[in-house]
Amino acid sequence: MERASTQAEPQALARGCPTLPVDPFDEAFLADPYAHHESIRDAGPVVWLERIGAFGMARYAQVQAALRDHETYCSGRGVGLADFAKEEPWRPPSLLLEADPPLHDRTRGLMNRIVSLKALKALRPTWAAHAEALADELLEKRRFDAVADLGEAYPMRVFPDAIGVPAEGREQLLVYAAATFNAFGPRNAVFERGNAIAGDAVAWVAQACKRENLAPGGWGRAVYEAADTGECTSEEAERLVRSFLSAGVDTTVNGISHMILALATHPDQWERLRAEPGLAKRAFEESLRWDSTVQTFFRTTARDVTVEGTSIPEGSKVLLFLAAANRDPRRWEAPDRYDLSRATSGHVGFGFGIHQCLGQMVARFEGELVLEALIPRVREIRLAGEPERRLNNTLHAIASLPVEIEPA
Ligand code: OVM
Known about the structure:
This protein is of the alpha+beta class and about 400 residues long. It has a single domain, classed as CATH 1.10.630.10. Helices cover about 50% and strands about 10% of the residues. The protein is built from 17 helices and 13 strands. β11 and β12 form a beta hairpin. α7 packs antiparallel against α13 and α8 crosses α10.
């Protein structure tokens, strides 16, 4: 067994793992999670997080194994701190994220057919043109906010149109997503601040998910067409469209923003990328490993399980620190370095196993198209001010990222 801190000893004996006093959702932790991950990883393969009443895993091996074992670590009782078997969920559960097989496999299969490589290839010319036009606008500005003007601007130009939601009020998507991702954590001040202003956004999203409000030819309508063939009910279709709107915006917004942060703070890697544009795919992937947008998700144990000597009873919440796993030195060499030489495959920034991100190809498309537009146009990307964080219980989010670019 790993050595625990003195304070942790009595609990450690009771559970067979160290007890940690850290609250992974307090504001200091959320503002700089990477400062805290090492102590959680080093404490042991499994820890007891007494402040939230959940087990935690922050090492790559255990996080990946838990994600792989969806029968033991189920999602149907919620992937936040709330146990849906005991508490009312914040919203009707997602039929993908918060579902187990067999329901999950049916909904996921249907959605996989909609978010296909073929569908993405059809969008590519339009999405590339948007990325190029946006890059030209940014070059005119030279100094801009890489969050508002790029990280948010690009997904908001391409993604809502792909789904087919109404143009009016789209900015509500960002408010809705922030509230949704906050709701996976405890009902702390971060949650309450977002929730207090989410009412209009929740109502807007509910309307946007209705068949009659979705544009023909979009992915939203395609879900209802699956309902027409009997693959799901129309109530399920409505909830599945909600998944697109919940998971498809804030994730890519912060993913693209962090990629720019990575490149602005690693000028040698930007230079290398300009010399070898074929590395664009890896540049995006490595930015997700280096700074994982979705920092954490919970699972709930569906049976008693023993992990490295720790007994985890059935019905326990287990917090999986995806971002900490992606920087575990037991798995990655010099993990804190953003490095285009690295083989990034195996990172858990998109999760792993049956719930692995449905939209991962969409996210990659967006990230790569942004890079492919910037690489030939931009010689240098520099920070032009201090990045400002936006605290969220699940996402590592940026509020603003002032940068300056030099034309090629
Ligand atoms: C959903 C959903 C919501 C938030 C995140 C997510 C990362 C999925 O409604 O299915 O996946």
